[in-house]
Design a protein that fits this description.
Distance between the termini: 31 Å
CATH superfamily of the largest domain: Mur-like, catalytic domain
Number of strands: 17
CATH architecture of the largest domain: 3-Layer(aba) Sandwich
Strand content: 15-25%
Strand order of the largest sheet: 4-3-2-5-1-6-7-8
Length: 420
């Protein structure tokens, strides 16, 4: 069995929230996550964008970064970035073999996410990074990444997602996310709605985490369709004419990233308002309102829950919409929001057991014309001949679907490779 086959096979172990196994795995690898400073980011929407902005800020400031995010779009190597470059296949194989040996020789029953978390921590140690940016996989309190002792944390806006694991109210989910807060460690809170905000602030108070709250300690705004960005705190002023990630909603993520950069400036003194502005403009995060083909225009967004759909709906032109959704999402609400910017829906499904069958999606359509397609690829082939400069093709609904679409567009329609 190849290392990649072994890793893929761990997905059948499912999801198991808890820290015992990851701690056992890392203890026997000399706890690589303690060898460099880390920043830990939780939340429902925007985690990856916050990390993309902060990664670009730190790199513009001359620091060597590690960046761990999930899931990947096309290949698992994307989860482990050093200075924006994915881990090599050879390096990944070696890391898998190392932790497979540890797990099997010590009878540690690891899940897929526990394995990739351990790999990320060790890869970053061996790459001699200056700082690692770590995205929570699910929740926070019992997520495998929560073995960290970070120098700063952030919690992005919260929505109802993964309710079977995290609870079915915003307050319950906020409580799980708040599990990453640590005593004495500064936290940037991006959730500004009650009652979730109160849950986060109360937990921060109880553990003794000093907080920066968007809208209270930080003032920010965006204009020109989200491109121009203005940030102000008691001690910082930042302004850029061109955020690297499109959409008005990215201003919030840029503000969280800037607040994190401000919170660690005493430890990373090369960070200045100028490097922040350069980083915000240079940030890249594939399949986030990304125009991947110009003629005809094809836009991909990895939005995969109602809050994310709402956030981008006002920035999308009316067009042809390829929609694929996971079974555990609020599909009816997502379809209804998609109808606001869809001239025609192409309902489909990505590969894998989590995908909602296209015919089930069709039951949620109210009055928008639609077609069914058996796969992402066939949906794209159906839609592209009907797209033009005034009616772009929009692909949305799932990170997994976005990845399949991006791979196919690279292979068949000349889309560029992923850039981080």
């Amino acid at each position: 069995m190849t290392p990649r086959d072994y890793l893929a096979g761990l997905e059948f172990h499912g999801i198991k929230l808890g820290l015992d196994n990851i701690r056992a795995l890392l203890d026997r690898a000399d706890n690589p996550q303690t060898k460099y400073p880390t920043i830990h980011v939780a939340g429902t929407n925007g985690k990856g964008s916050v990390i993309a902005f902060l990664d670009a800020i730190l790199r513009a400031s001359g620091y060597r970064t590690g960046r761990f995010t999930s899931p990947h779009l096309i290949d698992v190597t994307e989860r482990f970035l050093v200075d924006g470059q994915p881990i090599s296949n050879n390096q990944l194989d070696k890391q898998i073999e190392r932790f497979r040996d540890i797990a099997e020789s010590n009878n540690i029953p690891v899940t897929y996410f526990e394995m990739v978390t351990a790999i990320a921590f060790n890869h970053f140690k061996e790459a001699d990074i200056d700082i690692a940016l770590i995205e929570v996989g699910m929740g926070g309190r019992f997520d495998a990444t929560n073995v960290l002792s970070p120098i700063a944390t952030a919690i992005t806006p919260i929505d109802l997602d993964h309710t079977q694991y995290l609870g079915d109210t915003l307050e319950a989910i906020a409580g799980e996310k708040a599990g990453i807060l640590k005593s004495g460690i500064p936290a940037v809170i991006g959730e500004t709605r009650s009652p979730a905000k109160e849950v986060l602030l109360q937990q921060a108070k109880e553990v003794g985490a000093p907080t920066v709250l968007l809208g209270r300690n930080i003032r920010f705004c965006a204009s020109n369709a989200g491109k121009r960005f203005h940030y102000e705190s008691d001690s910082w002023f930042v302004e850029t004419e061109n955020l690297g990630l499109p959409g008005q909603h990215q201003a919030e993520n840029a503000a969280i990233a800037t607040a994190l950069a401000e919170s660690i400036q005493n430890r990373f003194p090369n960070i200045t308002s100028r490097t922040v502005e350069a980083g915000l403009a240079a940030a890249r995060w594939p399949c986030r309102l990304e125009r991947v083909v110009d003629s005809p225009p094809v836009i991909i967004d990895a939005a995969h829950n109602p809050a994310a759909f709402d956030a981008i709906a006002e920035f999308l032109p009316r067009g042809l919409v390829v929609l694929a959704v996971s079974k555990d999402k609020h599909a009816q609400t997502m379809v209804r929001i998609a109808e606001r910017f869809a001239q025609r829906l192409f309902l489909t499904q990505y590969q894998g057991p989590r995908a909602m069958p296209a015919h089930e999606l069709s039951a949620f359509v109210s009055d928008c014309p639609f077609e069914l397609a058996p796969s992402i690829m066939s949906a794209i082939d159906l839609a592209i001949p009907q797209a033009n400069d005034y009616t772009p093709l929009i692909i949305i609904g799932s990170i997994f679907g976005a990845g399949e679409a991006r791979r196919y567009l690279i292979e068949r329609y000349g889309a560029p490779p992923l850039q981080f």
